[in-house]
Specification:
Oligomer: homodimer
CATH topology of the largest domain in chain A: Rossmann fold
Largest sheet of chain A: 6 strands, parallel
Number of helices of chain A: 9
CATH architecture of the largest domain in chain A: 3-Layer(aba) Sandwich
CATH superfamily of the largest domain in chain A: NAD(P)-binding Rossmann-like Domain
Number of domains of chain A: 2
Strand order of the largest sheet of chain A: 6-5-4-7-8-9
Order of helices and strands of chain A: HEHHEEHEHHEEHEHEEH
Largest interface: A-B, 75 and 75 residues
Amino acid sequence: MPVKRRPGTRVEPESVSELTTERLSVYLRCLEGLDRARIKTVSSRTLAEHLHLNPAQIRKDLAYFGEFGVRGVGYYVTELSRHLRQILGLDRRLSVVIVGAGNLGMALADYPGFRREGFEVIALFDTAPHKIGGTSRSGVPVLDIAELKEVAAREHVDIAVIAVPADASQSVAESIVAAEIRAILNFSPGAVRAPDGVKVKNMDLTVSLASLSFYLAQGTNGQTR
Amino acid sequence: MPVKRRPGTRVEPESVSELTTERLSVYLRCLEGLDRARIKTVSSRTLAEHLHLNPAQIRKDLAYFGEFGVRGVGYYVTELSRHLRQILGLDRRLSVVIVGAGNLGMALADYPGFRREGFEVIALFDTAPHKIGGTSRSGVPVLDIAELKEVAAREHVDIAVIAVPADASQSVAESIVAAEIRAILNFSPGAVRAPDGVKVKNMDLTVSLASLSFYLAQGTNGQTR
DNA sequence: TTTTGTGAACTAGTTCACAGCT
DNA sequence: AGCTGTGAACTAGTTCACAAAA
């Protein structure tokens, strides 16, 4: 029996897993490619072949949010892209700050992929006096971390990236939470703790390398995604 | 009934999931901290409290590889660290190359966490003539990607990191596979395809940010790890 | 016909709960 | 007593398979 939810309708938060939302982002990127190639419609089967995924999974992921497809036809590429951008909240400018103006923080501030996807890096934050007042190569200013709360309030910062050494990460996370930023992308080793209502995503280089090392050591076999 | 497997014994590859191996790396880091604090033994409960995990999960993860614990006592910290390092293949020097000597590649080459965990970045590779022949700030040489195969054979490279723009990532992946490197950490957007026997781990910034954006847009609530 | 949307079946991963060892 | 190791139960995630729509 068809779900009588209209496309774009909000869904109960608990029911959508992070695995699903990550795949939505992958679908979106693929659809944007198809759109540039002037392809009008795509079936879950074709999309699944592109992405090496199961077609039923794609249909199920999309069906959480509405009935976007047309039976016998598939999905309209441009339309589905627009829906996915809206579902993912990518239909508006998102402002990002990076805490830690070391090599990694600076590199991330200048990463062209951010801007291309609608993320704007408005500032770097650090504690080192000789860094404060400077800018990244592309001109992102480095500010004193003491100013984070004020800047976040003034500029409506959506996401904070943590790119500091491990021993500073928890205190940085607390400053971010105090600044009322509700989403954190953490590149520091070791998970940071944040209260409910603040989403933390860990990108731990060390853990990923260890997992590759295990594969090499044990001769396991597999593929991520 | 006790498993009659001795500690350190190899396990059937298929039975250990990537989620488990990633947690092993987290356990190891935590144990190293306890070891530095001169703590001799730790129970799965205590470890679980540190890491905000379930104690049964920790016991189960460890039990895949042997019986490391002592009933009534817990685990000997130093001994378990040593076992985990061996299981993860971190008991030896691992050599890493980075393909793509842009901002991100350079930053990764100089990332101190690599060396600290026993990974040695031996070279960067790029195609841009003005980059080739130079070095990163910490002195990692930038070589021509045409030399990758030769260097990999000579230096026994374990892991390759992809840090190039999306449109180059698949061809870079093919060069890496041709160089007989069997583990890839991919920072490019879009999953790269590699044959069986080559492990790919994707660290897709765009996907992670989109997932945070979804959380902000929908007001979902959760915590990674 | 093609292809969606979805209940049902299946597979993977987590947590419980307890026997058994120290 | 305390704590591990592990079957059993549970929960989450994926894939199958088919009715319904175009």
